[in-house]
Amino acid sequence: MSNLSLAKDKIRILLLEGVHENAIRVFENAGYSNIEFHKKALDEEVLKEKIKDAHIVGIRSRTQLTEEVIEGAEKLFSVGCFCIGTNQVDLRSTLSKGVPVFNAPYSNTRSVAELVLAEAIMLMRGIPAKNASCHEGGWIKSAAGSFEVRGKTLGIVGYGHIGSQLSILAEALGFKVIYFDIVNKLPLGNASPVETLDQLLQMSDVVSLHVPDTPETRNMMGAREFGEMKKGAHFINAARGTVVDIPALADALKSDHLAGAAVDVFPVEPKGADDEFVSELRGLSNVILTPHIGGSTQEAQANIGTEVAEKLVKYSDDGSTFGAVNFMEVSLPVKGSGTRFMHIHENKPGVMARIAEIMNEHGFNITGQYLQTDGEFGYVVVDVDADIVEGQGVRQALTDIAGTIRLRFLR
Ligand SMILES: NC(=O)C1=CN([C@@H]2O[C@H](COP(=O)(O)OP(=O)(O)OC[C@H]3O[C@@H](n4cnc5c(N)ncnc54)[C@H](O)[C@@H]3O)[C@@H](O)[C@H]2O)C=CC1
Ligand SMILES: O=C(O)C(=O)COP(=O)(O)O
Question: Which residues form the ACT domain (predicted)?
Answer without folding.
Answer: 340-411
